Amino acid sequence: MSGVLQVHKLNCDLYIENFIQSLPSNRYYRQNNELKDNYCSWFEEKSEFSGTRSKLSNYVKVKNVADKLTRALCSVAFTNKGDECKEKCHNLYYWLGNELLLSDIEEKSFSDVIGILENFSNVLYESGKCKCTFFKNVTKENFAKMKIVYDYCKDYEEIEKTLELHKKTCDSKFNDYIVKANSAYNEIYNCTEKYSDTYCMQLKTHVPSCFVKKLSALKCTINDLTADEQGSSYYDTTHIDQEYVINPSAFSSSQIFLFFVLPFIGIFFIGFLLYK
Fold first, then answer.
1. So where does this one cross the membrane (predicted)?
2. Residue ranges of the domains in the chain?
């Protein structure tokens, strides 16, 4: 029976992860920044292109993602000047910064690399097209809070709708996700009310609608899902790109077999030792 429960728990965790990945912020990051096409080929003849990009190689922990970061900037450079440009630059800022956090970049280098990426955007600039300006005077810790709140603001309506659909019940993992986001939002909202830190005010300019009036805290009651609920798509993932869906059916029959059998082997082995 324990093997069955393990399989159901695995399914549930996968569906929750699918839901989180299907939220608007994550959809945007994937569709617009994780690019296979090399948009930079159009700009390689610019005089400062190679020199500016090569500066990223001075940072050991950035070298492996430098190409990925610059391709995203090159893609945005094709956008016309205006509101779409601003929106893309804001999204790009949080994606770029998060990539640097994932690379475990040193604190002292974080804002420097953000500055290099901004300079690279300036090099790509053509008249009437998009040029990004990034907020650089920020620590890794404060940037991480900014990104949590930025994503929360972008995803708020989708999460709220899903909670209403399921009568504001959720499992502990999803509840942890909401509690963390609520906490970060409250901290930065209060910060903007006091005008105490520049990073808070900067975030407010990125998602102003989120700070006109304080958002109601999203809450849900933790309720362990039944086996039937764990075996079905409990959360709405209709908008997720299928390429990124972690599908339980991808597990082989032998892997599923092990989930059932291993607990019984363990019981048998312990019994054998006690008998001896």
1. 256-275
2. 12-226+234-244
Which tokens hold the place of 213? 């009036």
3-state class of 240 per DSSP? coil
* Euclidean distance between CA atoms 171 and 153, whole angstroms: 22
Are the C-beta atoms of 175 and 222 separated by less than 8 Å?
yes
Instruction: Count Cα atoms within 13 angstroms, Cβ side, for 119.
Output: 15
Round to whole Å and give the CA distance between 72 and 84. Answer: 15
Q: Comparing C-alpha atoms, which of 177, 144, 142 is closest to residue 163?
A: 177
In 3D space, the residue among 76, 187, 171, 55 whose CA is nearest the CA of residue 121 turns out to be 76
Q: pLDDT averaged over the chain?
A: 80
Q: Please report, for residues 37, 51, 75, the alpha-carbon distance to residue 44 in angstroms, rounded to integers and kept in the order given.
A: 14, 11, 13
**pLDDT at residue 265 greater than cutoff 50:** no
pLDDT over 90 at 36, yes or no? no
pLDDT in tens, 175-206: 898 999 999 999 999 999 998 899 999 999 99
Give phi and psi for 260, each to the nearest 5: -80, -45
Q: Break the chain down into helix, strand, coil percent, rounded to 5.
A: 70, 0, 30
Q: pTM of the entire structure?
A: 0.76
Orientation angle between helical segments 66-76 and 107-124, nearest 10 degrees: 40
Using only the alpha carbons of the chain, give its radius of gyration. 23
Would you say residue 268 has pLDDT above 50?
Answer: no
Per DSSP, helices labelled H in the chain are 2-22, 24-33, 49-54, 66-76, 83-102, 107-124, 140-165, 172-194, 198-206, 227-230, 253-275
Q: What is the DSSP letter of 210?
A: G
